[in-house]
């Protein structure tokens, strides 16, 4: 007997995802588990890739009422993207990091990014590991499944890059098998195109049908995958990082995603990654931003751009090199009132949540909680 595969943990009113979705605007933290965070700038700051620093950030975010936390996954060689920083050479794995965070947090949803097409991953591995973390976290665990856009990453595993749309076809088979394993109350045998199982079984049962599923995409193939499988979809501004251009382009972009999900009989939520530079006044925020840019590690910026240029990602086509010094998918720079106003406009553009990043994470997160969060509550974006 095979149980029904639930559309989403949001089907369960008491699930952590359903509780988070009561918020008008989901609030997440994009953890800096890699050195340099999102900004190849040498301006002094506290931002650090270590587990203890990221644990403290996650606990602070949870105390502030944030709904989500997760970090990126990457496979990069010695010296990272280069420069004085050796940008992103040091990085801790997000899957292992989330597993450790699950035991020290109580409410916040923890998302682990995984390249499921690299190396020896098998759907049975992920189904078992994810079910275990679902059990440990009380249903607060999710998987951001990425297929990988950079050709040098799969070469590290002794393989070659798979064509863009074919990667999503493989990912769909992979997660379809994982969902079968989570749902089945009996042994499972599957003879798939890419993976095979014989008399496989997974326990413990996920608490709310299955863990939360996420993917990051901006392509038609990625949107179709998201429509079928994801609860949260990490989108990129098709117009680049400049906030006004992004706000103009996002309504149609998000509507396209949600229409595909609706056609599949599902509902997805779109989340985006703003880089927040906030100070008491607009002038102070701009001065802070200017200082970050003035300390650009240009060799690291060039290395990052070169790495991206040889990949086949369709989500970052209109992003400009000058925005990579600060980083982030979109950039919001200003006073607390201006930051709150831009977040409100993102909501009005169809975005359901934001995964925030900062230049100097610890003090900047503290200031966001002190100065911006009350304004979001006043604007009706947070309960």
From TrEMBL:
Record keyword Oxidoreductase present: yes
Residues annotated as domain Luciferase-like: 28-352
Keywords linked to the UniProt accession: Flavoprotein, FMN, Monooxygenase, Oxidoreductase
Pfam short name (any one): Bac_luciferase
InterPro entries: Luciferase-like_dom, Luciferase-like_sf, SsuD_RutA_monooxygenase
Entry's EC annotation: 1.-.-.-
Domain of life: Bacteria
An example molecular function term from Gene Ontology annotations: oxidoreductase activity
Protein name (database record): LLM class flavin-dependent oxidoreductase
Taxonomic source organism: Xanthobacter oligotrophicus
């Amino acid at each position: 007997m095979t149980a029904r595969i639930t559309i989403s943990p949001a089907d369960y009113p008491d699930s952590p995802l359903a509780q988070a979705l009561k918020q008008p605007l989901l609030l997440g933290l994009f953890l800096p588990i890699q050195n340099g965070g999102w900004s190849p700038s040498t301006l002094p700051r506290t931002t650090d890739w270590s587990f203890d620093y990221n644990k403290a950030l996650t606990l602070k975010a949870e105390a502030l009422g944030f709904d989500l936390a997760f970090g990126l996954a990457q496979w990069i060689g010695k010296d990272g993207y280069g420069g004085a920083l050796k940008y992103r050479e040091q990085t801790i794995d997000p899957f292992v990091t989330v597993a450790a965070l699950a035991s020290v947090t109580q409410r916040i949803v923890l998302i682990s990014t995984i390249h499921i097409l690299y190396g020896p991953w098998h759907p049975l591995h992920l189904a078992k590991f994810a079910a275990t973390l679902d059990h440990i976290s009380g249903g607060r665990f999710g998987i951001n499944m990425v297929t990988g856009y950079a050709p040098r990453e799969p070469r590290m595993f002794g393989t070659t890059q798979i064509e863009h749309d074919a990667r999503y076809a493989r990912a769909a088979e992979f997660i379809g098998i994982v969902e079968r394993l989570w749902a089945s109350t009996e042994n499972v045998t599957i003879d798939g195109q890419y993976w095979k199982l014989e008399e496989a079984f997974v326990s413990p049962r996920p608490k709310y049908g299955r863990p939360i599923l996420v993917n990051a995409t901006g392509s038609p193939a990625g949107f179709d995958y998201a429509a079928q499988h994801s609860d949260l979809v990490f989108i990129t501004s098709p117009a680049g990082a400049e906030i006004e251009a992004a706000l103009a382009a996002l309504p149609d972009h998000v509507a396209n995603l949600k229409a595909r999900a609706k056609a599949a009989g599902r509902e997805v939520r779109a989340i985006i990654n703003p880089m927040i530079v906030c100070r008491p006044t607009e002038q102070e925020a701009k001065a802070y931003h200017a200082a970050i840019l003035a300390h650009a590690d240009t060799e690291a910026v060039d290395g990052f751009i070169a790495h991206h240029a040889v990949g086949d990602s369709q989500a970052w086509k209109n992003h400009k090199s000058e925005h990579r010094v600060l980083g982030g998918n979109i950039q919001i720079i200003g006073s607390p009132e201006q930051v709150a106003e831009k977040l409100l406009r993102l909501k009005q553009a169809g975005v359901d949540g934001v995964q925030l990043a900062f230049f100097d994470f610890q003090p900047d997160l503290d200031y966001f909680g002190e100065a911006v969060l009350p304004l979001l509550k006043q604007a009706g974006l947070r309960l």
